[in-house]
Write a structure and sequence with these properties.
Helices cover 60% and strands 12% of the residues. It is an alpha+beta fold. It has one domain. The chain has a 4-stranded mixed β-sheet with strand order 2-1-3-4.
Length: 217
């Protein structure tokens, strides 16, 4: 009897797991809007670059003029982008505890900022993930095409960089055992030198792609 019960329950449990996984992925994969793509790129930068190091990107035109590429996240990766006015108002309404759900909906409609989230959604999470891959691949290709004409201005705020690296060390100490943590602390300078972004900067210097370099203490 127990075997029969397990056999009957198995498909139900499997369906529950699948539904839970689908719901998790739906919540995990956001729509690839320009704002979300920029947030993602900033997140990647923050994970690999210490705070206090900024890079401004310029594209050199055929006549030699340098055009500032303000879309490059290295310039303001540690600054949070301002929320669009419409989204800001919607968030204020959502957080107002004096209004019930119906009153919030009516107020949003009156202000012309209501929207059906289901209609705004771009397909399933699998379709959104595919769009993410396509967008990021296109951006990567565009960066490769820009590479020969790209110039960078690098700014170091040594105090910010030091504080950022100290924080990184503390986090790694908490994740590592004592011996590894002590080794990491002792090797400070080597760790900085092996930073991916510093490796990238060093690769630019021989090609004369870094035209300005400033350090503040």
């Amino acid at each position: 009897m127990k075997r029969v019960y397990v056999a009957v329950r198995a498909p139900f449990i499997a369906r529950q797991k699948k539904e839970a996984t689908e719901a998790f992925m739906e919540a995990l994969i956001p729509e690839p809007t320009p704002i979300n793509v920029r947030k993602f790129k900033k997140g990647i930068w923050r994970k690999t670059v210490p705070k206090g190091l900024k890079m401004k990107k310029f594209i050199q035109s055929p006549d030699g003029t340098l055009i500032h590429d303000t879309s490059y996240v290295g310039e303001d990766a540690w600054d949070d982008d301002a929320m669009p006015p419409q989204e800001n108002v919607k968030q204020i309404i959502e957080n107002d505890k004096r209004l019930n759900t119906e009153e919030k909906k009516e107020l949003e409609e009156e202000l012309g900022i209501s929207g059906n989230k289901e209609q705004q959604s771009v397909g399933s999470w699998r379709e959104r993930l595919q769009l993410w891959k396509e967008i990021l691949n296109k951006e990567k290709l565009a960066e490769q095409l820009d590479a020969s004409n790209a110039k960078y201005a690098v700014e170091f705020d040594m105090k910010e960089v030091e504080n950022s690296l100290r924080k990184d060390v503390v986090e790694k100490v908490s994740e590592s055992n004592g011996a590894r943590a002590c080794g990491y602390l002792r090797d400070g300078g080597a760790t900085v030198q092996q930073s991916p972004i510093l490796t990238f900067i060093r690769s630019l210097i021989p090609q004369r792609q870094v035209f300005a370099f400033s350090i503040s203490f």
